[in-house]
Design goal:
Layout (H helix, E strand, L loop, with lengths): L7 H13 L11 E9 L2 E3 L2 E4 L2 E2 L2 E6 L2 E10 L7 E11 L5 E10 L9 E13 L2 E10 L4 E13 L5 E13 L5 E13 L4 E12 L8 E11 L1
Antiparallel strand pairs: 1-4, 1-5, 1-15, 2-3, 4-6, 5-6, 6-7, 7-8, 8-9, 9-10, 10-11, 11-12, 12-13, 13-14, 14-15
Length: 231
């Protein structure tokens, strides 16, 4: 909130001073916090169904190139697992357009047995433009489940007006565990964000995903509704 001090001396002398030396712009904040409130009609992770309907709130702290977040999935149906994920990462600029992203995610499941409550996954990714597209190429390794994942995501954004865009994305991934069978997953989706203000955005989306795991349900369609606010 701006505070304006009305001082008689400033009224007399300040006009000429401000013409010669404009007031400096306020310093950019050292960090930002983003709160996100999402409802998804299905929770799909790497092509696999993990819940039929879930509230998925999250909060993310960003400071320079460092970020940390807490994400959760709270299933509507109690037959699915409650999940909390904790992530910390750092971005390294490769050049003005490309950045390297490295970090660690801890996946936790409070309702499971002691030995199954958490897994730990490191990741490294490269993000940047590819013509009119954006691309994110990532490699993940879960140290507890001993599973390697490679994933490529391509995105395209269509600007409708100053408040609205249509964002398209497609994803292809491959999971290779040390023990057991590997599988491929893929998906695509469309998201339409609408800016309510400089800080607040509401989005609706429609998604599709599938996999080639024998004997496991695939071919999932679902929708999302999201409210995002940055402090």
């Amino acid at each position: 909130m701006k505070k304006i001090a009305l001082i008689l001396a400033a009224l007399v002398a300040g006009a000429s001073l401000s013409a010669q030396a404009p007031a400096p712009a306020p310093a950019a904040p050292a960090y930002s916090i983003t709160a996100d409130f999402t409802y998804a009609s299905k929770y799909i992770f790497r092509g696999v169904l993990l819940a039929k309907g879930a509230f998925q709130p999250s909060v993310k702290l960003t400071s320079g190139d460092f970020y940390a977040s807490v994400w959760s999935s709270m299933p509507v149906d109690r037959g699915y697992e409650l999940e909390f994920d904790y992530t910390a990462g750092y971005g390294f600029k490769v050049d003005k357009d490309w950045a390297l992203d490295v970090g660690l995610t801890v996946y936790t499941y409070p309702g499971l047995g002691v030995g199954d409550k958490a897994t730990y996954e490191g990741y490294v990714g490269l993000n940047g433009p590819l013509g009119v597209l954006t691309t994110g190429t990532y490699a993940y390794y879960d140290f507890k489940l001993k599973a390697f994942t490679a994933q490529e995501t391509l995105g395209y954004s269509i600007t409708v007006d100053s408040k609205t865009s249509v964002n398209l994305a497609t994803t292809l991934g491959y999971v290779a565990p040390d023990a057991g069978s590997s599988y491929t997953y893929y998906g695509f989706g469309v998201t339409v964000p609408y800016k309510l203000s400089d800080a607040a955005t509401v989005s609706v989306g429609a998604q599709y995903a599938d996999h080639n795991i024998s004997g496991l349900e695939g071919s999932h369609f679902w929708g999302t509704l999201d409210f995002n606010y940055t402090f």
